[in-house]
Design a protein that fits this description.
Oligomer: single chain
Distance between the termini: 33 Å
Strand content: over 45%
Shape: globular
Helix content: under 10%
Largest sheet: 22 strands, antiparallel, barrel
Structural class: mainly beta
């Protein structure tokens, strides 16, 4: 609370709401404000001869207006007050859509799409075989990407315990570190309220027959099923959260079959059972508040998971072979993962909020055709936040970060090639600070700085300072104009530098000389709140411009020259992919979204989430020769692209539109979503030119499917009792056969039923 005429007198209450404010004699207007609640104002006449007592009553704002986020500035802010573009996904989207993997929910977010497991924000990245993300993934503000930069283990993230998901669109490296070159996704988990809460869900479903004649490879039903649970409770001074999930998925892509005409060898002994996905996960959270030390809390969070699943790189052929994998292009993956997060926080009497958080993150991957690998990450972060009322409410956030990654890859003999064992270490040290200040109750200014330092294998040392700034101006009661500028920096992952995989023509070669990529992002946007009766929400529009230097992309070529064992003086060349710095690129565009909810009538309620994103991702120097391979082929954007019109970058959708709507009438609900993807104009020319890849029919398929894609999903639900609900979900409603990532088909229509029990 503070004096309107002298904000420097502001004070924080204690944990029970008690406060003490020292004022001079006379009349004062005192404001009590808490984030997420409507403030209360009283006028007092102060007499030096007595002590005044005053209580404040606060009420909650509307759900949209009270959305609080932490990802933008590392402290709680109202969504409408931040200076960057952000979307917030609530947990009801997960349940309503029967999401069993968090990517199914993320795909509903405007400006974000998941391409075969890889997140793309506003066209900031293409497809890199699951290695090296330009989008930071965080769980409760701590990095959750595998330490070596391998495929993101989406199915091992705790989807059953999500408070909200915060998605920053645009470079956010100052607050979220190296990987946040084009944005970040922060999955915030929930803690107990005063009422114990328990929920148990079970679901079951099946795949429909693919729409192409002869493409159904399974007999009987291809089903999927699972169950999850979550329990939260306060036990005295202890907060307890436990949850878990198990799931089985038969899969819709069949095992390879041996075809003599193709000369296929290898992994044709994979069975239908091998193509199924099995996942199990358990998570917990403990937080303790000592009675004798107000403001202190400490605890331990953890997540343990294991999954076995196939990664199919290439379909067998167009036509009836779309839903089968080509021989020698299936990776059977067995992944184990766990993390433990000890932490301690303390809010001192003078308003300093200290936190020390750590994460030990372990992953172990066993894969066919690739060496098994183990990665360990030790992460620690100290952060201090202080609001200086004597400086007009100036908020300062500062922190120190240590991130130490150790990766070991076993040796492997595969396809006649011996891959030796390797061990690598990447150390990252960083310091950051961000200052936020509100002027005249309508203008928020923000400025931040971070210094990143990387040490690879105790040798090469790389340091990079990065900067951000932003402003948010409240033009009217519910109109907010913002602008921001931010720099990004991403150090190559260990996999991008050192991964070696012998996989026929799809082999990957190491590039230890790969350099970091940098970016800057500028945008201007407006957020307009609206209210129609009891229905309210926000309309947001932004124009953005982002440029990248030393852009990292995977490129095909002859990267290995080896002596012919039978003919002296003759060399053989091994072809495959290598991660390269490909020069400067840029992405410009507009991003529009709308989110709202509320009652249309007494019994009829509506939830809406929609968005449209247009991007113009371009190579800035298309003729730049960024590499020459072992057979002296000069590689540039122009020579490696199938379509160079307007210099559009590879693997991008220039237009994406999304809509999710749900109507609730008393105990019934009906809803659905629609997603539109424009045609992917440009892919790597190797898919057209290399004979062993051309036989998969990718060129013919793209010529026959050269328009945009519309995908529809539908759902109905019944709240049978206060505790029991049931929903029925149909994904890919019209059973469309379509491909997003070249050489991989998307699932046919699925039917699923979900039953949920809740208490609390």
């Amino acid at each position: 609370m503070y004096d309107v005429n002298n904000i420097a007198t502001g004070q924080l209450s204690d944990a029970k709401g008690n406060y003490e404010l020292h004022l001079s004699p006379g009349r004062h207007r005192i404001v009590c404000a808490v984030l997420g609640m409507k403030s209360d104002t009283v006028t007092l006449s102060i007499d030096s001869a007595k002590v005044n007592q005053c209580s404040f009553i606060l009420s909650y704002e509307s759900r949209e207006m009270q959305t609080l986020v932490v990802s933008a500035g590392r402290y709680e802010q109202k969504l409408q007050d931040i200076t960057v573009s952000m979307d917030v996904l609530k947990p009801n989207l997960i349940e309503d859509n029967n999401s069993t993997n968090i990517t199914q929910t993320l795909d509903l977010a405007p400006g974000l799409n998941i391409l075969d497991g890889e997140p793309q924000i506003r066209g900031g990245s293409g497809f890199d075989f699951g290695v090296g993300s330009r989008v930071a993934i965080l769980i409760d503000g701590l990095p959750a990407l595998p330490g070596d930069g391998g495929r993101i283990p989406w199915d091992l993230y705790p989807i059953e315990n999500v408070d909200q998901i915060e998605i920053i669109k645009g470079a956010s490296s100052v607050t979220n570190g190296s990987s946040a070159l084009s944005g970040s996704i922060n999955i915030r988990t929930a803690y107990p309220t005063n009422t114990p809460y328990t929920t148990v869900s079970a679901w079951s479903g099946l795949y429909d027959s693919p729409p192409i004649a002869g493409s159904k490879w399974w007999s009987g039903n291809a089903g999927f099923s699972g169950t999850s649970f979550l329990h939260t409770e306060k036990i005295g001074q202890l907060d307890l959260v436990i949850g878990g999930m198990v799931q089985y998925d038969h899969g819709y892509i069949g095992p390879p079959i041996e075809e003599a005409s193709k000369g296929a060898v290898g992994n044709v002994d994979i069975t239908s059972a091998d193509m199924a996905e099995k996942t199990g996960r358990f998570n917990f959270a403990l937080r303790y508040h000592p009675k004798k030390i107000p403001g202190l809390s400490f605890g331990l969070n953890g997540d343990f998971g294991q999954s076995t699943n196939p990664v199919s790189l290439i379909w067998d052929s167009i036509g009836s072979g779309l839903y089968r994998a080509y021989p020698n292009t299936v990776i059977l993956q067995n992944q184990k993962m766990f993390y433990l997060d000890p932490y301690i926080t303390y809010l001192s009497d003078n308003g300093f909020e200290h936190s020390l958080r750590a994460r030990y993150y372990y992953t172990n991957d066993l894969e066919t055709y690739n060496p098994s690998s183990t990665t360990q990450v030790a992460y620690a972060e100290y952060q201090c936040i202080k609001k200086f009322y004597e400086l007009g409410g100036l908020n300062v956030t500062a922190g120190l970060v240590m991130n130490d990654t150790y990766s070991h890859t076993d040796s492997l003999y595969n396809l006649g090639v011996f891959l030796p064992a390797s061990t690598n270490r990447l150390q990252n040290y960083a310091a950051y600070t961000q200052i936020d200040k509100r002027f005249w109750k309508v203008l928020n200014l923000s400025v931040g700085f971070r210094d990143e330092n990387f040490i690879i294998d105790n040798g090469q040392n790389t340091s990079k300072p990065i900067f951000r700034s932003g402003a948010n101006l409240r033009l009217a009661e519910a109109t907010f104009l913002r602008c921001s500028y931010g720099q990004g920096y991403r150090y190559p992952t260990l996999s991008e530098k050192y991964l070696t995989s012998q996989f026929s023509d799809l082999s990957i070669f190491a590039n230890p000389n790969l350099q970091p990529e940098t970016s800057w992002n500028a945008e201007i946007g407006i957020k307009q709140g609206f209210k129609i009766g009891s229905f309210m929400g926000f309309l947001d529009a932004a124009a953005f411009w982002q440029e990248y230097q030393n852009t990292i992309e995977i490129t095909y070529g002859a990267w290995q020259k080896v002596p012919n064992p039978y003919v002296a003086g003759v060399y053989n060349y091994n072809y495959g992919f290598e991660y390269l710095n490909t020069g400067p690129t840029e992405v410009r565009g507009v991003d529009i979204s709308i989110a709202g909810e509320g009652a249309l009538t007494k019994d009829l309620k509506l939830d809406v989430l929609a968005g449209y994103t247009y991007t113009l991702p371009q190579a800035m120097d298309p003729n730049l020769v960024y590499a020459t391979d072992s057979v002296h082929t000069k590689l540039s954007y122009t020579t490696t692209s199938t379509n160079t019109t307007n210099n559009i970058l590879k693997y991008r959708f220039q237009n994406i539109a999304k809509l999710d709507v749900e109507l609730k009438y008393k105990k019934y609900s009906i809803g659905g979503d629609w997603v539109y993807y424009s045609y992917m104009q440009n892919v790597d020319t190797v898919f057209y030119q290399l004979s062993s890849l051309a036989e998969y029919g990718i060129k013919q398929y793209r010529e026959e499917h050269n328009t945009g894609i519309n995908v529809y999903n539908a759902r109905v639900g019944l709240q049978a009792t206060k505790s029991f609900s049931i929903s029925f979900v149909v994904n890919n409603l019209f059973n469309l056969s379509y491909s997003l990532r070249p050489l991989k088909i998307e699932p046919p229509r699925t039917f699923a039923i979900r039953i949920t029990y809740k208490v609390g």
